[in-house]
Amino acid sequence: MGVSPSRDREPSQIRVEIGELVLDGFRADPERVSAAFEQELTRLVRQHGVPLAAAGPLAVAALSGLPPLPAGLSARRLGQELARAVHEGLSGHGEVSR
Hints:
Low-confidence stretches: 1-8
Strand order of the largest sheet: 1-2
Number of helices: 2
Radius of gyration: 15 Å
Distance between the termini: 34 Å
Oligomer: single chain
Shape: globular
Structural class: mainly alpha
Helix content: 25-40%
């Protein structure tokens, strides 16, 4: 007889794969944006988890309905704000395509 894991336990691993970030209308260095994005999204997931995945594994094809971002942000700030917007989407805000 096997023991099933408790639903109250936090997952031991969360993996988020982003296929492509498209930055139309921004003049920031894409590599710096990507590094800031990854750092901030990692922090947010560690701190708050991924609420949409609370019931088990989740695959999301696209997030939409997220807030617009100002074009004049620095690469670091753009990456942080983009990560916050994506985490909001993974938290149940915005529209999710599975």
